[in-house]
Amino acid sequence: MIKKIIGGNINKDGGIAAGRGFSVHRLNDKAGVFDITFDPDTFISCPTVLTKQHSAAGSTGWGDFSHQTGDARDNTILVAVDRDHCRIATGNAAHHLDWRDFTFLAIGQEDDIINATVVAGSVANNGKYSVGQNFEVTKLQPGFYLIDLTPAFAGTPIVVATQVTGIDTNTTLNVVVIAVNNKHILIKTGGPDGNPADRDFNFIAYDSSGATTKRMQDAISGNVNKDGSIYSGHGFIANKIAAGSYSVRFDWKYCDDHAITLVTENYLNWPDFSYFGGDPLDAATVAYDNCYGGDPLDAATVADMPSKFDIRVHTGGGGGTPDDRNFGFFTIIS
Length: 334
Prior knowledge:
By secondary structure, the chain is mainly β. It is 0% helix and 45% strand. The chain starts with a strand and ends with a strand.
């Protein structure tokens, strides 16, 4: 299934560093809160929105590859979303909202041709990648990975990433996009204390500037309500199986390749724009097949990915206790 995607790199002052098809309004009286309005008629229903914080406080910009400090648990919140706009809040590992650069991708349910360059991959903690193409990875030091895009993109891509945790689904294990330009991406992965640590991760890089048309097959996305019903999307079924635990099964009869999945938790209700905040450590975890459990304390994490056609998603609050929450997911079969 082909998806319509827009995305952007947003500066902490509300300026657009990269991307098109939307406008941004920073709510100056609400710390860390941004409203993004999609261009008219971009989506026919509520899209799935993925978001990730860029770097940490102290970075000099998107292309600052020298900045390697900050807490790896710094994160973003999807506060609300409907077919026309979304609200995203940025914050730090101390549970406080704060102005930070961030990225987002909005994935629609429409069949469409993506006039863009899309690269997605899974990278092992030793710097070797097992899924994906058109990139190379160099492990620079513990927790830092340099991705070389081959060939280079036409413009600066929008990058979202999440950890792959296997049986260790403690979601304090986050990923931060430290720096990005049209040739390179610097990724930082962290341990439960926020310090750099070698970890597996997934990423997607998207660029619509001057790119040739690319069809992205075998990609599926959706938004699931906290009771397990489907809010938007098709091609899958979802069920709530326990408190804060959900099964998502794709309609595909089989999958003989590997999956790259990213997930974002929705803080309260999808279209509730009356709310302006939240705990930046609230998030979801993802596990495949019979991988259960997880401490939903910080950012979305993904467990081992055998060749199957269902995933398990776990949601919770910043205190680490599983709790029923809405979530959105995006899975690419590579």
